[in-house]
# Entry
Amino acid sequence: MNGTFITLEGIDGAGKSSHVSWISEFLQSQGKEVVSTREPGGTPLSEKLREMLLSDAMDLETETLLMFAARREHLSQVIKPALARGAWVVCDRFTDASFAYQGGGRGLDKSRLTQLEQWIHGDCQPRLTLLFDVPCEVARQRIALANRHLDRFEQEQAQFHDRVRHAYLDRAAAHPERFRVIDGTRTLEEIRVQLEQILTQLQP
Ligand code: TMP
# Structure
């Protein structure tokens, strides 16, 4: 793979989505071809699966398998072709979200997730993962302020999001070679300065 795969992660309300378009524009201004995408989603079929995943109640195993089904489609239709032609792929969430939400949040055995990860994309991992970290109370206040319909994950209790946050931090500690933890409580400007430094260092 000639391209560069970057993923953004964090609990709901951590603020990562506000940075996706900025990161893409920054990389484009450096002359890179950028594919900006998201999970679950990123292809017509995966977006249909997203709608179900965010709204319909389902068994934990079903939820996990649908996340990975959406991912497989996304990888084969969008991510891998883009990386093969040398593009930069900026993806809002990826498999670390399954470890954090289905593993940490809902308690699915990690070994199951590791098996799925190996099966579905053992050969393709992000080069850089930006984890936007904020305390759960801060994230909950932000979501409440947004004053919109909450999806199935956002409606979960504070303890759920606390487990998700800690699962993310454990995953970051286990993979220091690709994770950068961003303190999401700082101002947008402060965060952008740090992002610019990280992305500039990543340039080949
Ligand atoms: P978003 O709101 O950041 O677009 O993400 C949609 C929700 O899907 C978010 O609450 C996290 C959840 N999710 C999982 O539970 N597992 C996964 O593997 C992914 C990619 C997302």
Notes: The radius of gyration is 16 Å. Residues 12, 38-40, 67, 93, 97-98, 101-102, 153 surround thymidine-5'-phosphate (CB under 6 Å).
